[in-house]
Write a structure and sequence with these properties.
Elements (H helix, E strand, L loop, with lengths): L2 H35 L5 H16 L7 H9 L2 H9 L5 H18 L5 H16 L4 H36 L2
């Protein structure tokens, strides 16, 4: 096989892998939307996804730190669960939650990502202003919030790799 053929196969495999990943991703959020639209909504799944975001954020900070304590207090799982199940979680609550999560991501993420993080936050806030249903808002929030938090982790890993490279070059 020639080098061009190998490169073509790699490109095709990368394309196929991306297509599969994208389809899986879309299917996941389609199912989430369905679970939210059912009567009653699948509160357990929504709360688990909320809890995952909280966990990812808290793990960024040392136990007992003021930032970690604040996140643990503000993202109270039991309160969120009760509010959902009793139809007490309203648009203003969703707006506050959205601003809080994305402000954290802007504050602790790479400044290079501030614009895209703000755009993801604004996408949700605009849907709230339009009065979109929770079946639109929640999947959008889960997707955008996870993307932003994952970017923080990716950037930290990149920084750590760069520090390791620099330290290894100085030995």
């Amino acid at each position: 096989m020639s080098a061009d053929t190998n490169q073509s196969i790699n490109i095709d495999e990368d394309k196929l892998e991306k297509q599969i990943r994208d389809q899986y991703y879309r299917a996941y959020f389609d199912v989430l939307k369905e679970k939210i639209e059912q009567t009653p909504p699948d509160y357990e799944w929504i709360v688990r996804l909320y809890e995952e975001i909280k966990l990812k954020l808290t793990k960024l900070f040392k136990e007992g730190s003021s930032t970690r304590n604040e996140i643990e207090d503000k993202l109270d799982i039991d309160l969120f669960n009760q509010m959902l199940r009793n139809n007490a979680f309203h648009f203003n609550d969703f707006e506050r939650l959205t601003n809080y999560i994305f402000d954290l991501c802007i504050k602790f993420g790479s400044p290079e990502r501030d614009k895209s993080t703000a755009e993801m936050r604004d996408e949700i806030l605009n849907e709230i202003k339009k009065g979109s249903t929770f079946s639109i808002l929640i999947p959008m929030f889960i997707e955008n919030a996870n993307t932003c938090v994952d970017h923080i982790y990716e950037d930290l890993q990149t920084t750590l790799r760069n520090i390791d490279k620099k330290n290894n070059n100085n030995i």
